Structures are given as C-alpha cells and as structure tokens.
C-alpha cells in the first residue's frame, strides 16, 4: 500500500532532492567567496544569510497556518519545531560556516556528505527502519566515488584542516539528527509549515547570537558580501530548504540523503567555475561513481520503498494521540 502511495510521485521527489543538493552545495561557494572578499566571521555571515531569508519564511508560515487543513499545534509540536530548528539550521549551519574558514569547499562537502550514512543509521536505531542490501550497495558506491574524487587532498593535512574537519563533522551529525526527526514531523505538520517554522527558529537564534556578540560596526562590509549573502539566502537557503522538505515527505529521509550524495560533484564543478579550483582524473572518476550510486537509488523505487516506509505506523499512533510528539 505504501509503495502505491509513493511510486507516482517518486520522480518528482528525486528531482527535488537533486536540486536541493545542488543548491546547498552552492552555499560553500558563496561562503568562500565572501571570506575572500572581506574580513567577516562565521556568525556575521550566517546572520546576513538568515536576515535575508526570514521574511520569506514568515510569509510562508502565515500562509500555511491559514490553510483549512492546518492542524492546531500543541506544546510538544512547538518543542519539536524549536529543537529541530536549533540543531538542523542554526547549529549545523554555524559549525559548517566555522569549518569553511579552514577547509576548501570540496573537502567540506566530502565530510558534510557523510550525513546519508548517519541518517540511515539513526533512522534504523530510532525508528527501526530495516536497511536493504540495495540501499547499502548504493551508499558504498556513492561514498567510494566521493573518497576517490577527493583523494588528492589527503597529503595536504594541517592542524587547521583537522580543526575544520572536526567542526564540519559535528555539523554533519547535527544535520543528520535533523533529517531523522524531520521526516516524521513533516508528515504531521506539513512540509511548508514545518520548514517555515523551523527556519524562523533558526533565524531568530542566529540573530540573537549575533546581536549578543557583535556591535553594528560588524555590518560595515563591502557590498559584494551583501550580494553574496543575498544570493546564498535565495539559492542556497530558501529554495533548497523547501525542495528538501518536500523530497523528504515524498521519498523519506534515508533515500533523500543518499540522492543528495551528488552534492560533492556539484561542488567540484562550481569550485572550478567560481573558485578556480582544479579538476583532475581522480575527481572525474569519483564523480562517475557518485552519479552511478545516485542513479541506482533513483531507479530502485520498488526495491527499497518498503523497508524505509516506517512513518505510516507512526502516523497512525500520532493520529490516535494528538498531544504526543511526532
């Protein structure tokens, strides 16, 4: 029954997941260009990104809350929204921005895209999602490609690189925890409403963080930084956030995370175009493997839909207990 529900929209879910991955991958390019343009720290840059984004999310939250099918949110719903917004879009983003001070865009993307593995494991541990053999094969192919694509960077290790890697790894775990909880919360609250509210939470926390640690003089930055921040807000925040949430709802968190493995490939080519980074044979070979893994996920709807469709029983329990947390 669950397969029949997901199959007609599977292609749309895949397309949304791919576009979201490319949009989020462009974020690293925007950040590196901003760091190169002025002396700006992570929280200031993140605050600009959030300030440009929050009006859209306020509008979307207002619109979605006025829909006839919008449910009344209870205290536990609000706590869930606050918690996921904090770990998913504030903490994860801040740690990632800090890590990008010390890492190249490509290496950051390699570490960040460990999140499919973490999401699958967290989903299995918390929601008892069985992990199919095909699922594992696709994951191995994708990450073998990522490792190959960035193998040439391994000899250039440094203390700063290790610090940056630790920060981005912590960002990855935070984002994985968000994905694991978001797949179930979206089904109860609605994709647009949930995404808008969690992003508002993240925006407010970020702006409070900035206001409590900086003066207004920190905003005296070149116009190029503001332009990059606006582009990051639109193309690497607003649009991909909504596409990601919709993809999670259609094809579930584990598959969405695996399809997102195309992100490092997108970063390689955008780094080449905008940061003058080189592309070698190892990167090309790795890109082919990553695309092969993504294609395997995209064509394996029937094989892996059933093992990953545990949200249905959860939805039944949530409907029977409207005051419980999703």
Provide a descriptive summary of the structure in words.
It is a single chain. This protein has 326 residues and is mostly helical. The chain has one domain. The protein has 15 helices and no strands. The longest helix has 31 residues. The radius of gyration is 19 Å and the shape is globular. The protein starts with a helix and ends in a 6-residue tail after the last helix. The N terminus and C terminus are likely disordered.
What are the defining features of this structure?
326 residues; mainly alpha; globular; disordered N terminus
Task: Please give a quick description of this structure.
The protein has helices spanning 2-6, 10-37, 42-65, 75-99, 105-112, 115-127, 133-149, 159-189, 191-213, 223-251, 253-259, 263-274, 281-298, 301-305, 311-320. With 326 residues, it is mainly α.
Detail the poorly predicted runs.
1-6, 301-326
Number of structurally distinct domains? 1
Sheet with most strands: none
N-to-C series of helices and strands? HHHHHHHHHHHHHHH
* Beta-strand residue percentage: under 5%
Provide mean pLDDT, rounded: 79
Radius of gyration: 19 Å
What's the total helix number? Answer: 15
- Measured between the Cα atoms of the first and last residue, the distance is 22 Å
> By helix and strand content, what is the structural category?
mainly alpha
The beta-strand count equals 0
Q: Which word captures the global form?
A: globular
Helix content: over 70%
Indicate the topology.
Elements: H1 2-6, H2 10-37, H3 42-65, H4 75-99, H5 105-112, H6 115-127, H7 133-149, H8 159-189, H9 191-213, H10 223-251, H11 253-259, H12 263-274, H13 281-298, H14 301-305, H15 311-320
């Amino acid at each position: 029954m669950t397969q029949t529900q997901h199959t007609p929209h599977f292609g749309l879910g895949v397309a949304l997941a791919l576009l979201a991955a490319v949009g989020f991958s462009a974020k690293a390019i925007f950040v590196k260009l901003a760091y190169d343009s002025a002396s700006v720290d992570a929280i200031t840059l993140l605050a600009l990104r959030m300030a440009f984004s929050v009006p859209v999310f306020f509008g979307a939250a207002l619109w979605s809350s006025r829909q006839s099918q919008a449910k009344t949110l209870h205290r536990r719903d609000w706590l869930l929204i606050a918690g996921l917004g904090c770990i998913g879009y504030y903490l994860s983003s801040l740690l990632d921005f800090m890590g990008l001070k010390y890492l190249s865009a490509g290496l950051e993307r390699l570490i960040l895209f460990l999140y499919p593995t973490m999401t699958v494991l967290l989903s299995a541990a918390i929601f008892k999602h069985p992990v199919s053999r095909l699922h594992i094969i696709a994951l191995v192919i994708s990450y073998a490609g990522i490792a190959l694509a960035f193998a040439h960077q391994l000899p250039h290790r440094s203390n700063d690189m290790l610090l940056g890697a630790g920060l981005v790894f912590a960002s990855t775990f935070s984002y994985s925890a968000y994905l694991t909880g978001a797949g179930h919360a979206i089904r109860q609250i609605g994709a647009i409403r949930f995404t808008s509210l969690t992003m508002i939470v993240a925006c407010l926390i970020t702006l409070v963080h900035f206001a409590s640690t900086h003066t207004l003089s920190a905003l005296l930055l070149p116009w190029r930084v503001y332009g990059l921040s606006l582009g990051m807000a639109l193309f690497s925040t607003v649009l991909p956030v909504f596409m990601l949430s919709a993809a999670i709802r259609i094809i579930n968190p584990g598959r969405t995370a695996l399809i997102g493995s195309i992100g490092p490939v997108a970063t390689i080519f955008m780094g080449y175009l905008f940061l003058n980074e080189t592309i070698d044979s190892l990167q090309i070979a790795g890109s082919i493997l990553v695309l092969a893994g993504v294609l395997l996920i995209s064509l394996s709807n029937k094989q892996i839909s059933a093992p990953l469709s545990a949200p249905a029983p959860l939805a039944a329990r949530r409907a029977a207990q409207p005051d419980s947390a999703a």
